[in-house]
Amino acid sequence: MRAYTYNERGDFVGTVEAQESPLEKGVYLLPPHATLVAPEIRTGKRARWTGSAWEQVDAERPQEPSAQDRRAARYKAEADPLLLAAIGYQIEKEAGGSVDEKLAKAKADYLAAKAKIRQEIP
Description:
By secondary structure, the protein is α+β, with helices and mostly antiparallel strands. It has two domains: about 1-60, no CATH class; about 65-120. It contains two helices and seven strands; from the N terminus they run βββββββαα. The strands form three sheets. A three-stranded antiparallel β-sheet has the order 2-1-5, with no helix packed on it. It has a two-stranded antiparallel sheet with strand order 3-4. Helix 1 (about 65-90) runs antiparallel to helix 2. About 5% of the residues are buried. The model has no long low-confidence stretch (mean pLDDT about 80).
């Protein structure tokens, strides 16, 4: 049996196959955030589950991420691993070279990546 899923806001996400209960014939098990009621799909609208029925709401246009959001995402992707590497050097104290040298190099790499991100994304 087909079930219709929705996200935390109630927006229609897609369909799944509900599984029949192994204990009760004819009873179907629904995953979280799902209903057996089919939504109506309209152009320019989005189906939203209210808890008892689907309603039609205006489809929102996805917003372009701000420069600050792009910078934060890039910072997280590039600079955070360098900071984690510095912490790893301190904790693991790998053989070969001093811990202080490794921490200094990791810190320099971290600061360079941070500065590069600031220059590239206004």
